[in-house]
Amino acid sequence: MPGLVRVAAAQIEAGQDVAANLAACLRVIDAAAAQRAQLVVLPEFCNHLSWYASRAQARELATRSGDAFLTAVAARAARHGIWVKINVTFGYDDGRTGGTNLLFDPTGEILAQCDKQTLMGAENDFLDPAVAEGPVLDTPLGRLGMYACMEGVISEVTRGLTLRGAQVLLNSLNSFALDEADLHIPVRAAENKVWVVAANKVGPLLPADQLPAIAERLGVPPQWLHGAGESQIVAPDGTVVAKAPRTGEHVIVADIEPARSDDKRRPDGTDLLASRRPELYGPITEPPIGRQTAPGAPELPVAVVRDPGLVREAVLGGARLVVLPEATGSPETIARDLGGTGAHAVATVVENGVQLGILISENGIVARQPQLHPASRAGNRIVPVDLEWGRLAIVVGDDALQPETFRLAALADADVVAVPFRAQEPWELALGLPERAAENRLNVVVSTPLEQPAAILAMSPDFTLWTAWQGPFTGRISTPIRTDVPAGTPLGVATVAPAQAANRMVSRQTDLVDGRPWGLAGALTK
Hints:
Distance between the termini: 26 Å
Structural class: alpha/beta
Strand content: 25-35%
Shape: globular
């Protein structure tokens, strides 16, 4: 197993001039080699702008085995003795055209390739999704896994690669979204405790001559349709160890230790992967059936209450849902404080050694949700509760660490998730729970002990470029509206949007929940 490995992420602009795109690829490979990188990752769709007149044109312009584009990249890898991960459109002999990751070894041979499993928006018009999951490659640099862009906006692909042993994940992006850099990229490192090397585009992501007209139709400033840059290298704790600027061709490097990824322990010694419950995750690997319940209410006032003596104040102030931390308050007292308001509260109790999330009304406990993780817990599924404003799921304690838990809640058509939780590492609140809201379109109310920060994460109607935004375009496509409740603050209030949980279309033809790569997610249940 290697010790330190020097890796690089290179961001480039790639347009409709294939020769210019190839020159940019070779230029950054040279620059990475000059900085003594052993591996360099390039962005998605390096060979041609992902904009075509037809599926036939996309196939015509795709790379092929042994063509001039790939031969030149292979020769440059061999010249420098460097590993190169690139993403291109690739034409297969059977007629398929993939968004394809290729890994060149230091001799210039293609060691492995895999196609993008989840296509984004118009990519569905031109490309074919993967028919097989991507490999995990045991190399002198460590165990490597490859993915691309939209596959990192949801959790299944990166979790599957991790479960199959990957230590370093290589991500090629073609994204204008700012939340790639500050949420989706680093969370995949932290939640899996692996390294991530991610390379994004810069420059126009649409034909330059058509960009102003397209931007006008979409109602966004043209500069927001440029690649967002900020390529980065992220450590297994979610720390960004190197980051490129938002604009301009750039190569970043960092020395990483792949073996760090083999330690999946949290500070209390629990192992993130060993505490999973694969037998519970079957619905994630089954065909989508679409949302089965009607959307919830447009608005729901909620409160995080860390002092049980403030429950009455919160509900008299208008909160319809109150969430308390683990082991805070007695059900009887909370029920009394809810009297005459019609509000509900979520708290926890321990029964027969099992921690339960409990839903309380003025009449007492009306629902129980056993903790699911680790396997010694008694719970076997997430069972949401229908209330007058929508559907509520309760995620208890360490269940909040597993992306699969929230995916199950989304598949059960939850609108709001209450999370009594105690954090151990910074990423859990900074990245993990915001991503659980973002990748599932779930409103999430997180109540932690008073000495920790808490948060209320609400879904915004400003979610996709394909609908008119109510506010100014921010460049963040799925990041929830976050209301922080600072440590030491006993009461925090905000409004969430249950109805927005039904709006899962992140782009045309791309549903965050039903578009998951369910058919290739078998590693999650093994």
